[in-house]
Amino acid sequence: QVQLVESGGGLVQAGGSLRLSCAASGRTFSRLVMGWFRQAPGKERESVAVINWSVRSTYYGDSVKGRFTISRDNTKNTVYLQMNSLKPEDTAVYYCAATSIEGSTRPRDFGSWGQGTQVTVSS
């Protein structure tokens, strides 16, 4: 099991940037697959980005490709989500999640979740 804590959410204007962080503890972080997910009001939770433990593979949801970048620093047990060119439709609660299963991209494949951080994009 792993404990995850997200931070970095906030209010930003359309076209702006924001970086989310997720700090992990309670498990060997360097061997976990890490993902970012989001849920907007009235919508289902969706996959945003996933990165494997060795950083040799990544996954991005179609709506964020070219705008968001997932990265990780295994020495700090932290995963990041750099969000650029933000749009109002990016407004959601963003969740960090972890799994030991390589190739996982769906929310149901991830067993450990953070509390979420709110991202609001105006205009």
Low-confidence stretches: none
Tell me the radius of gyration: 13 Å
Structural class: mainly beta
* Oligomer state of the chains in this structure: single chain
What share of the residues does DSSP label as strand, in percent? over 45%
**What is the average per-residue confidence, as pLDDT, rounded to a whole number?**
94
Please give a handful of descriptors for the protein shown:
123 residues; mainly beta; seven-stranded mixed sheet; four-stranded antiparallel sheet; 11 strands
Give structural notes.
With 123 residues, the protein is mainly beta. The protein has no helices and 11 strands. Strands 2, 4, 5, 6, 9, 10 and 11 form a 7-stranded mixed beta sheet that branches. It has a 4-stranded antiparallel beta sheet with strand order 1-3-8-7, with no helix packed on it. The termini are far apart.
Short description:
0% of the residues lie in helices and 50% in strands. The chain has no helices and eleven strands.
Layout of SSEs?
Elements: E1 3-7, E2 10-13, E3 18-25, E4 33-39, E5 46-51, E6 58-60, E7 68-73, E8 78-83, E9 92-99, E10 112-113, E11 117-122
Parallel strand pairs: 2-11
Antiparallel strand pairs: 1-3, 3-8, 4-5, 4-9, 5-6, 7-8, 9-10, 9-11
